[in-house]
Specification:
Length: 326
């Protein structure tokens, strides 16, 4: 029985934090047994944000390292670079010709940029069509997204239906969203949702010193040690729930509720547990980073395999639209 195809693109635009890991990255690793995973480095999407040769190259390598370090297996997951498959941009142009500007003006990224009075580039305006091409090229069955990203898949579905209707042939499969709604919002060091824009992150491959600095900066109340606290309202305890094992977590909860644990002690336990979790990932990443040739080979091999699939699909598309004459 053939596995369903699961596809996701990740922009190489910065270091991942533990919120990224629990919010999406871990799921990609977990799902590579159940699905035929295709995870691509969305470097052409990133060109809207990074326009510097050295930075772009470094970020692509770093992101590939990140995913290999957390357990993506190139034998089970096709890892490739979007820019290695020119058929993506070819299909984007074809989709552009059947897409209206008012339709694209409803996209979240465009509306967000417009609300900030930005001078919007064409790449930002048109990115839903490149994303639709990314998804539809491979007969994707499912696209894992957060609730706030569901529109990406809806645009791909709309585009597939419109193309199939105009050219009177079922060329593109309609993908389904796989909403990652079982994942709780990962709290940052201030108790709010962890995000780079909030400046409240703990990096996924942080050193012990970086973990210590981040955790010790978590704001706490000024109650005396002996006074009972509600652990559910405590910013440190919110992170304990991700990193502290059940028996120790139960004991900690009791100490919070009865009183008798200092913020310093709780933070020290959390530092130990986060470091225990991150250390093997960090060490694996450091080991992989010694072999750049292996990283490049993973991307090149993934690109070759993805390109074969894209070429087959584009042969069909060119025939259907009438430009294939010989």
């Amino acid at each position: 029985m053939n596995k369903k195809i699961l596809l996701s693109g990740v922009k190489p635009t910065g270091r991942p934090h533990i919120g990224n890991y629990f919010g999406a990255m871990k799921q990609f690793v977990d799902m590579q047994e159940e699905y035929q995973n295709m995870i691509f480095i969305a470097d052409y999407h990133a060109l809207n944000f990074i326009q510097d040769k050295e930075e772009m190259s470094k970020q692509i390598i770093d992101l590939t390292l990140d995913y290999l370090a957390i357990g993506l297996d190139p034998q089970k997951t096709l890892i490739y670079k979007q820019s290695d498959i020119p058929e993506h941009t070819e299909l984007t142009w074809i989709f552009d010709t059947i897409t209206t500007m008012p339709y694209l003006m409803r996209a979240h990224a465009y509306k967000d940029a417009e609300s900030k009075n930005k001078e919007i580039n064409v790449g930002t305006f048109n990115y839903p069509m490149l994303m639709a091409a990314d998804i539809l090229m491979y007969d994707t069955d499912v696209v894992p997204v957060g609730q706030d990203q569901k529109q990406h898949v809806e645009y791909a579905r709309d585009t597939a239906q419109k193309f199939n209707f105009i050219f009177k042939k079922e060329v593109f499969k309609l993908p389904e969203s796989k909403i990652l709604d079982t994942v709780a919002v990962v709290p940052g060091t201030d108790g709010q949702k962890m995000s780079k824009s909030n400046g409240n992150t703990i990096e996924l491959f942080a050193t012990t010193e970086e973990i210590t600095k981040a955790v010790m900066s978590i704001p706490t109340d000024s109650k005396p040690i002996d006074e009972p606290r509600n652990p559910e309202e405590d910013n440190v305890f919110k992170l304990h729930k991700l990193f502290t094992k059940s028996d120790e977590l139960f004991a900690l909860r009791e100490r919070y509720q009865k009183g008798g644990i200092s913020h310093k002690e709780s933070k020290e336990i959390l530092i130990k547990n986060i470091d225990t979790f991150i250390k093997p990932l960090r060490e694996k990443r450091e080991q992989l980073a010694q072999d750049t040739d292996f990283i490049l080979d993973v991307l090149k091999e993934g690109g070759k395999r993805a390109k074969l699939k894209a070429e087959k699909k584009m042969e069909i598309v060119r025939e259907v639209i009438g430009v294939k004459l010989y």
